[in-house]
Amino acid sequence: MARTVTCILRIASTAITTNLRLNIAAQVFTNAGVILLFIVNLLFAQRLLRAQHPKFGWSRPISYLFRALWVLIVVSITMLIVVIVQSQYTLSIRTHHIDRSIQLYGVTCFAIVSFLPIPIIGLMYLIPRRPSGRRPDKFGQGRWREKIIILLTSTTLLCFGASYRAGTLWRAPVPRTEPLPHYFSKGAFYVAYFTVEVLVVYMYAIVRVDLHFWVPNGASKRRHFRMPEDDEKPAPDDHAVTQSITNISHESELPKEDVEQHGVFSEEETFDKELEAGVQV
């Protein structure tokens, strides 16, 4: 949806070149649309880390670190939007220099953010599991390796696009009197901006990423990825299990009417009932 709106605004701003607001809106959506995929990948990486190392992944420092990362992303995208708008309404050379510095910071920051799931996965395997040989917490559908492959593939594609945008922006600006270099061509633009994102979104839809990375509501440090009601059920002891199996076996041998009226009978009562039933027959 975000990229559809971006393309509509770009077409409109090209058709109506005198409308500055359309041009600004197109630039804002072009730079802000991909941030959603960066956040999604970081959430998936956090869930994998918590499943592999619950004690470490659910710890307060790691949780606060991810929260600080969300704040950094929001602040950075806000700064980019502000400088995009400001650069269109000023002729001050000093202001343009400051705006470009903020833009360089923003694209570099998002390139790093797009790459973060890869070192998180590497850290996940470098840290020894406690206790040794412990299997990761089960969440969602599919195998563990499938989740890793999905996240690594999407991260690689998005990191390529973000790195390309950062690298081209760090190059020296080209005067308008000169032709645009090849790395600013239409083909390079649409591949680096839109193609990689479309591939990631379609891959998410085809592999049903909503099922692979689904976690139950109420997951926390104490419950991990289990259902909340699982912690409320007391663990049955051996005597209770044995008594339950005995009752089920007795109940299965009696007519349904007797069970509903009298409940579960003892062995003597069961024998008398079966004897009475045989005499009546």
Describe the structure.
The chain is mainly α. The protein folds into 2 domains: 34-229, no CATH class; 238-280, no CATH class. 72% of the residues lie in helices and 0% in strands.
Short description:
With 281 residues, the chain is mainly α. It is 72% helix and 0% strand.
Helices and strands in order, then pairings?
Blueprint: H1 2-15, H2 20-32, H3 35-52, H4 54-57, H5 60-87, H6 93-115, H7 117-126, H8 144-170, H9 186-206, H10 209-212, H11 228-232, H12 238-252, H13 256-262, H14 267-280
Helix pairs in contact: 1-2, 2-5, 3-7, 3-8, 5-6, 6-8, 8-9
- Beta-strand residue percentage: under 5%
Poorly predicted ranges: 227-233, 256-275
Q: What integer is the average pLDDT?
A: 79
Largest sheet: none
Helix content: over 70%
Secondary structure tally, helices:
14
Q: Order of SSEs, N→C? A: HHHHHHHHHHHHHH
Question: Given the helix and strand composition, which structural class is it?
Answer: mainly alpha
Total tally of structural domains: 2
Rg from alpha-carbon coordinates? 30 Å
Number of strands: 0
Distance between the termini: 73 Å
Shape: elongated
